[in-house]
Amino acid sequence: METWLYISGIGIAIGLVHLILFLILLFRRRKEGREKLALVYTLFSLFWIAAVALANLEAVFLPVVTESAGALIPVLALALAVGYLTCVALLLEYPFWPIVATAGYTWTAILLGATVYFLFAPPSRLPLEQIGMGSWAVFTLGTLVLLTVGLFRSRMAFHRNRALYWLLTADALALGQALTLFPLGPLRMVGPLVHTLGAIALLRGVLGFWLPNVKAVLRSIFGFLFLFTATALLLTGVVLAVERLMTISVMPSTSLAILLAVGLALVYLPLYQALARLVDRLLVGIGFDPAQALRDYSQTISTVLDLEQLAQTAVQTVSQVLDIQRGALLISSETERGGLLLRPVPGLGEVSTDPIELEPISPLLVRLKEQHTPLFQYEVEHHPVLREALPREREGLRALEMEIYLPIWAEGELAGLLALGPQRTGEPYAPRIVEFLSTLAHQTGVALQNARLFAGLQELNAQIMQLNESLRAAYDRLERLDRAKSDFLSIASHELRTPLTQIRGYTDVLNELVRSDALTRDQIARITENISRPVRRLERIINAMLDASQLETGMNFHFAPTALVGVMRMAIEPFQEALQERNLTLTTYGLEDIGPIRADMDRLVQAFGNLISNAIKFTPDGGRITIEAHPLDKEHFEVTITDTGIGISKVDQDLIFEKFYRVGSIDLHSSGEYKFKGGGPGLGLSIARGVIEGHGGCIWVESEGYDEERYPGSTFHVVLPYHAHRGPCRWKRSEQGG
Ligand code: ADP
Asked: For ligand 1, atom 4, which residue shows the shortest CA distance?
């Protein structure tokens, strides 16, 4: 047959295949960007194949036609190279793909224009063919570089497989185009033939989301070739042996052939099987017994209750049989909004422990809940639906650097995911392995549930312990207050009896003197003075009791304009004698800086009086008492009363403001009014707090602690508003670090 018939036959067949690819793409309903690019590519391919076929049909067409077609081949090949580079850049998510497309196609259009122009107006002075070929080489090289970089960059097996797939496709396409750029005569049709393979792979890659495992395909091809060659060699050897034996043997040739055939049949089958097994082991092989591994695994995890340990056991079991780089358990819990929180518990290798929150409508969550099959990171990044997930969710998963997530179900709920990184071999997880891992994940369900329950119990336990602690503290406080109340009875009777005894003593003396008629004016004055002192003290105690009884029901206040200096002067005045007696220094600072105030003067005098009286009582002879005032803000000012006394322990600092609360044992109680450590009935501070709070102020104490050797002293802080008001204190203690 004539060559041109072959050429046109091959040309038509190749053209038809490309046309079918073109039509498949054309009639797809929802075309994505890459599919549109592939459509343009296959359209150019049709023109290119037509040009190649025409260029080779010198025998049929006029030289002008074949030459014109030949001149167009480099430009059309360039269009294909531009198309593929754009497609690859888009697939690898390089943002510059539109620039490549625009620049490449513009350049192609210019070259095409020039080529067509010079076809009609020869001779051309430009080496257009060489320019076309050079440009083709640049774009093709660009594609190969991008793909090779992508291949080396991808750390996950599925991603690497994808890069390898596109690299091989690019090789086939580029080789096909290259073969047509050289004047090989009729051999040029080999180019489009090779190109067809690449174009089919291109379409498959553009349309399908999962790509075939390239290495596995190559391996089975090599396996097949190996077995094929081995068998062919064996058979050839046998045939040659028969031939040789026939010349030297005395046996009839038919019998000899039958004998050898039987012998061969006996040897061939076992030999073939052994070879096939060898190939399987060398190329594909699953080097462990899944059933045994699962049995061992379920025995080990049944006793594990700790989440971290469970993660380690699960991942390490897998790593023993598969040699993976990293792995973790992702423990799931529902969020308040109905989403899912995945908390990674590392099991092997370095794993980010940042939790990942999936929204209730996240396609990832829907995929995990609706399909019980394993999820691949490759899907997360390339599946058209899963790609719609929030960037935060996809980046969270990407940061884990895992390859596969195996859902762990327990009682119909998604309890977690077993996340595994890539295998060290760089192989994607084969379906058989995925099946094994799914069973393993399934078996983890009950153990995970138990571990979660255990973790929950531990947390609950910790909460209960904490509650217990606060209950104990509250109980302690109540017990102290209760003790204070019972102490009060004995203290109050003592407090009342002491002045009464004094009064009785003096009235008895008075009676005696009256009866013996020996009473001088002087004596009367001294005795009445001695009687009126305990009376005043009785009065004070009873008044304090009355005031304290009003604390719950609310004291009555009469707010009126006054001045802090005046209040303080009146509060200090009654203690002058005691101060002198006990050799204490009292100094005031800044009282004048506080402007006019509105308050209940008598009550403030009483409150500050109580604080000063305590400072005197709890400071040893020769100590110092300092009263300082300073403005805080527009509304408030502060008065501090600092002493160099015995101090107050931290536990007591709140309690002392409670009614009847006194520190220490009641035996310390002394009847001496301002004697060192002379306790009272435990009402002074509760009344002071009632008064200060009744003015809309607040009061607290600061002290390093109670120490009768070092005398750390105490500072009582009183914050008051310039304008007294009802209701709580508006000054926030934290604002001034108190
Ligand atoms: P009392 O009538 O016993 O003085 P308070 O209510 O005034 O009652 O004080 C309660 C307790 O607080 C006192 O018994 C004392 O132990 C302690 N306290 C009060 N002020 C001071 C202070 N300035 N230094 C040390 N302890 C103090």
From this structure: 680
685 CA from centroid of ligand 1 (Å): 7
Q: Which amino acid is at 211?
A: L
d(CA 730, CA 698): 9
pLDDT, tens digit, 9 for 90 and up, residues 247-287: 887 777 778 778 878 888 888 888 888 888 887 766 655 55
Q: Is the Cα torsion angle 649, 652, 657, 661 positive or negative in sign?
A: negative
Residue with tokens 């036959």: 9
Distances (CA, A) of 305 to 99, 110, 449: 57, 72, 9
The residue type found at 145 is V
- Rounded CA separation 435/51 (Å): 50
Separation between Cα atoms, residue 267 and residue 258, nearest integer Å:
14
Q: Is 296 in the same domain as 237?
A: no
pLDDT digits (tens, 9 = 90+) for 329-369: 898 888 888 899 999 988 888 888 899 999 999 999 999 88
Q: Are 20 and 39 in contact (CB under 8 A)?
A: no
Of 374, 386, 350, residue with least CA distance to 430: 374
The mean of the pLDDT values for the chain is 86
pLDDT tens profile 22-34: 999 888 877 778 8
> What are the Cα distances from residue 329, in Å, to 156, 240, 303, 366, 421?
19, 62, 17, 20, 12
What distance in Å separates the CA atoms of residue 674 and residue 614, rounded to the nearest whole number?
8
Residue 150 tokens, joined: 């992508």
Q: Is residue 634 part of a domain?
A: yes
Residues contacting ligand 1 via CB (< 6 Å): 610, 614-615, 618, 643, 645-646, 648, 656, 661-663, 679-686, 714
Instruction: Please tell me whether residues 16 and 122 are part of one structural domain.
Output: yes
Most confidently predicted of 242-251, 409-418, 594-603: 594-603
Percentage of residues of the chain with pLDDT beyond 90:
37
Is residue 48 located within the same domain as residue 138?
A: yes
Of all protein residues, whose CA lies closest to atom 23 belonging to ligand 1? 615
- Do residue 381 and residue 404 come from a single domain? yes
Instruction: Encode pLDDT of 689-738 as tens digits.
Output: 999 999 999 999 999 999 989 999 999 999 999 999 988 998 887 644 44
